[in-house]
């Protein structure tokens, strides 16, 4: 009857990797079973081709209701990698025994982590907390190093003459540790399903192995459960079936290059060991040399960055490191001893927050520069690469071929003429890569949402670091760039739901990518969504995008379609219904103002697409402008919209300046009467956002009555009211670019029959708000002096 040996390990632990290597060589097992996706068993030859590690198994899944991706990284010191390579070298049959990464069992895991190995540490916080308190360490990583990495002697083996791998001292310590941290805790449904499946592989291997041993290498959290679930007898057991995805799903796995940066826990990988460069050296050279090498790496990096590290600093760091190791009871200096010693010697008391290795948190901008460089040095810059014979998804080859066909050089900036067939084809290809997240080019200029028609694009060349991995991962979406981009956008549409702003951005992306079918589907979704929108702001994004597409027909060929008209019509109608119901509130709601400006542009440039007429829009704007319950910025914007429509000749014949007009001086007075002096700035911000050009008037005619009335309103303010409202007034006039502000200043000078330079009025050397406060202070001082007959004649 076969014997089964269970090794519980921590992923990416050098000590566990050495234990696996020793055990395989001692046992010479018939089967080596490894926690990993069973659907990769048919591709183990591909996995063991001879890649430069680290690499990762990238798995993807997509159906109508769920999208899932995961990465299972492997490096030289991964116990799973040692099990595969040493098992193959020993003549064993090696198998992955876990459910495929796309399986719903992984989606049911607590937290829904994207990294495959994220199930153990969150569940044994209480047990590890007691251990950390006992050993006086701050983090689980420091505890692990104390118990296993620096305590493990690479030359340590089972007693001479022993044939039991569990006589290995490290194996006994690991068993005790994982029995303690798992205890009798009940795993969640996802992990129970995984453990039951892995146990079926163990039973089958034991039945097929005869009298030869079986070795099972899994995460330590699973080992106690597997030992209980996989009890077997001599009854033959069939090999488990590898689950396949449902018929309507797309799923698969590819090997991708990986890097130490992505593996590092400081970078966000939940189940990684921190500082992978340190652990790589620990694996290759042992703990003493790893500590010395870490010290050298950090000092070299700091000096290369121009951060001074003297010989005295280095001596102090070594002394502190050795003292901390002795104080903490470490048989050899651990990673945290080296880092704490360096921090004590080089940083001292100049720390704004806890050291990241003592809190297992990602780096932040508040971290000390020396601490940042230390952490990066511990991470290392190693990046893996795939063997040339590794099968790649079709998308990788399709992108390379398309790039050559379109003549897109890797390092050249591009200027594309979208009015030509060649320029449009290259633009669409680059946008497809952008949507898929493929590095290489970034668009600097080009058609925007709702801007004037632009027929040229400018693209900058970017570093292509990580391009191969990104292409392989994007291969999950399809074999060709256009179908992969369409699948990616479809996924994002599903995530966006009824978010009209997000859908608007996706619509523009779909058009830029040339995904015509998806564009029409998105238009239908948008047309339905805008009619139920609850906020004006997102409707502005929709109108800007849809109007931009309507006006860019020369490039994209989508203008005039009924679906696009339905989006414009529904968004404008819903926007006016919403703004007429807004009451209360202070300040300036800029998204709402942008939405009204987009509605104004739609009434100007696409009136044939709308059922709401300019006359109705003008009447609605007049009602809002004079509604005392409406916010001040909205009242000003409504008046600006009314005047803008009147200036276009769309208000039904109202004179823009007559007393009976809804947009002239009388309307201005009525609208402003509803706003107090404390909200004048907000009111003007709304007015200028919708009618900046109308307020300014024609360049040759500076006798615009609206501007004159505004001048009278501001001039009539008391000094105290003006001082109170000055910050908001300055923000309101920021709507005007410098040239237009100069025209305003010249108009005000002419109105007062003053000679002078308008430009000089705009080039003040002191803060206007400060000058106004100083003038107010001088006025109060003068009044006090006058009260006591101490003032000079004015």
Largest sheet features: 4 strands, parallel
The tally of strands reads 10
Report mean pLDDT, rounded to a whole number.
81
Strand content: 5-15%
Number of helices: 34
Structural class per helix/strand content?
Answer: alpha/beta
Ranges where pLDDT stays below 50 over 5 or more residues in a row are 110-122, 651-663
Give me the Rg, rounded.
35 Å
What is the share of helical residues? 40-55%
- Spatial shape: globular
**Main β-sheet, spatial strand arrangement:** 1-6-2-5
First and last CA, distance: 114 Å
Descriptive report:
By secondary structure, the chain is α/β, with parallel strands linked by helices. 53% of the residues lie in helices and 8% in strands. It contains 34 helices and ten strands. The strands form three sheets. Strands 1-6-2-5 form a four-stranded parallel β-sheet, with helices on both faces. A three-stranded antiparallel β-sheet has the order 4-3-7, covered by helices on one side. A hairpin with a 4-residue loop joins strand 3 and strand 4 (67-74). Helix 1 packs parallel to helix 11, helix 17 packs across helix 19 and helix 20 (500-513) runs antiparallel to helix 21. It is globular. The relative contact order is 0.06. Residues 110-122 and 651-663 have low confidence and may be disordered.
